[in-house]
Amino acid sequence: MHRTLADDLSRLPALLQSARDLAAGELASLAERPVARTGPAPAADRLPEAGTGGAGALARFAERWAPGFSASAGPRYLGFVTGGATPAALAGDWLTGAFDQNASGAAGSWAAALEHETVGWLRELFGLGPAHSGAFVTGASASNLVGLAVAREWLGERLGVDVSRDGAAALGPVPVLSGSPHSSVGKALSVLGIGRDRLLPVPVADGDREAVDVAALDAALTALGGRPAIVVANAGTVNTVDFDDLRAVGALRERHDFWLHVDAAFGGFAALSPEFAHLVDGLDAADSVCVDLHKWLNVPYDAAVQFTRRRDLQVAVFHNASPYLGAPTGDPDFLHLTPENSRRLRALPAWFSLTAYGREGHREIVERNVRLARDLGARLDARPEWDLLAPVRLNVVCFTTSEAPTGERLAALADAVAEGGEAFLTPTVFKGVPALRAAFSNWTTTRDDVERVAAALTRALRA
Q1: What is the distance between the alpha carbons of residues 128 and 133, in angstroms, rounded to a whole number?
Q2: CB 410 within 8 Å of CB 403
Q3: Is the pLDDT of residue 254 over 90?
Q4: By C-alpha distance, which of 375, 359, 381 is closest to 450?
Q5: Where in the chain is the domain with CATH 3.90.1150.10?
Q6: What pLDDT is attached to residue 31?
Q7: How many whole angstroms separate alpha carbon 17 and alpha carbon 21?
Q8: H, E, C per residue of 19-78
Q9: pTM, whole model, 2 decimals?
């Protein structure tokens, strides 16, 4: 063994303690440190010929790179929809690295059984029935990709084509209909050989809505003349967290032949709250479902789950035909269900957090975040310099300036807030209007943070 490796092995407890001390210090400072780092990063260094050992690497990281990392795990990082990591989830993530399990299948470890248990808990959490099987993937983009890949195979079944063998070209044009699809849907269609231009936009409801107009969707399906299609419904849109009427969309299958994929990346967590659970009524009727876990479940990146009713078609797409990996019979190993053969045990942080805090603890996070988003929305709505572009339906506030709401101005405001260090928000465009969005999903955010964000926005606007 190389002497530096041997030295690190002999001092491993001390090295892990040093890493723990650095992590604890960083987490303790999250509430006060700059939320975003906007300065230039160090120039790329040369690959070391002789290593410094673990302690040296830790010191080098703390000096050179840690100061430039964002406080994305903290309470005022409101860009995108980014959760943090609950204490139990963080412990589970550290142990994921320590145990370093190959989670591709059941051979030689109970890791796959733990993932099955965790998927079952999540299925129950989101109100899905036993007909839905699932697996962990890297994020919502991968979850949407898997769901749409299974949908593509279903289309082949309807049209008498074996897509996994003959390729997507054998299907001919594939109609994919959606009202307000996430950008990852187009990306998935590109990867799957269906094509971004096959995504057919369907009108949404009038006013400040992003939910699909169900009558317009009915008409678009009728226009296909009976050709089977894919419908992508939304349970929580990016800009305003609007929800398609999943029951009404599902009922259209009485007259039309389509695969229903529901993108519930973070909106699916509405199921945890009695006040908001009605928003996901009908989710159980979906053929495939996407839910992102490093958003509102507050587990570390990267983690999401995908569900489908047609595991047989999922295996047809993703099975890996190799003697040393085993055949996908009975209860297929996870490597036969997702694009990855190599899979870290992403389920372990989720298992830890669900075990530690249960349904009740995670419901409290969801409901508190919604209250805080509504608080910020009310503060902005009360000020003449800001305009809400939609009601705060769940955990995202979408707003703009009442005067000169140009893309340049809104981007400059976002930059100014980030440079001030108090918060991080992302610019967007809603109904053609440049805007900002603040997404609440972190488990530590409080009313004091809302006050600080509101004050930061006021300062940026007046600068």
Answers
A1: 9
A2: no
A3: yes
A4: 375
A5: 358-462
A6: 86
A7: 6
A8: HHHHHHHHHHCCCCCCCCCCCCCCCCCCCCCCCCHHHHHHHHHHHHCHHHCCCCCCCCEC
A9: 0.96
d(CA 123, CA 287): 14
Under 8 Å between Cβ of 359 and 353: no
* Encoded tokens for 18: 């040093």
Percent composition of the chain: helix, strand, coil (DSSP 3-state, to 5): 45, 15, 40
Query: What fold is seen in the domain 358-462?
Result: Aspartate Aminotransferase, domain 1 (3.90.1150)
* SS3 assignment, position 291: strand
Q: Which CATH class is domain 91-352?
A: alpha beta
**Closest to 174 (Cα-Cα) out of 182, 268, 190:** 190
- Name the average pLDDT for the chain: 96
Tokens representing 227? 């050709």
> What is d(CA 126, CA 236) in angstroms, rounded to the nearest whole number?
14
Report cis status (omega within 30 of 0) of the bond before 302: yes
CB atoms within 10 A of CB 205: 17
Give start-end residues of each CATH 3.40.640.10 domain in the chain: 91-352
How big is the chain, counted in residues? 463
What is the rounded CA–CA span in Å between residue 384 and residue 123?
44
